[in-house]
Amino acid sequence: MKKRIMNLLLIILLVVVGVCLFLRWREPSLIYYPMRTPFTTPAGVTDLNLTTSDGVAIHGWFIPAQFAPAPTVLLFHGNAGNLSHRLQKISLLRAAGAAVCIIDYRGYGRSIGTPSETGTYRDARAAYDYLTTARQLPARNIVLYGESLGSAVAVELATQVPVGGVIIEEAFTSIPEVGKKMFPLLPVGWLVHNRYDTIHKMGRLQSPLLIFHSRQDELFPYQYAERLLAAAPEPKRLVELHGGHNDAFWQSQAVYRSALQQFFAGLPAS
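-> structure tokens emitted (270 positions)
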């Protein structure tokens, strides 16, 4: 009987170890869903070909504002698709009075390489450096905007460089916490390489913060947004949207656009 119990425990241990090793191996594919589907650059959009600090060539767009003066939103998209799938958001940001710069992380769209946490941070910094050097924009005129995975990228960059403001949408607290929610019986915190530990960086923000989140978000609960808000210094604001993780901004256009306009109006003058 004792031997059977020991054998059963050994089998359970081997299964758990096997699952852990599988998750460790599959981690990148569980976080990143890049698409390289060919797309056409729209009229009025400038293609950007940037090089990161580690020599990776990334692609982006710059879309001017409809009217000047205007803030420039540096947009970091979520973990799926590429920048060509963000045309609706770009149109709303421009309608709210901003210019938009958006990049594809390494491995996405026309950008080369393979995505990783460190890689996305370097990609973001390359775009920021482009705005402040090639376009000579004052840091106070740059607003970092991150959706979903991009929220972690935006917050990390905001702790490294001066900016006029930060906007995050349908954000999460950290990869270990999300993983624990998905795999409650596994030691996810010990397994993951990509951590995107946004919750512990919020206190280092030094610019106005706007958070968008929907209570109907099927991936990240509204409590994530509340905790991120609580961890951040003033000035800060949480705006509730309605809709799913990927379309709440579109389903709540009136609220979304109004909040953006108020946020932009409160930024330092050019």
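The chain has one domain: 44-265.
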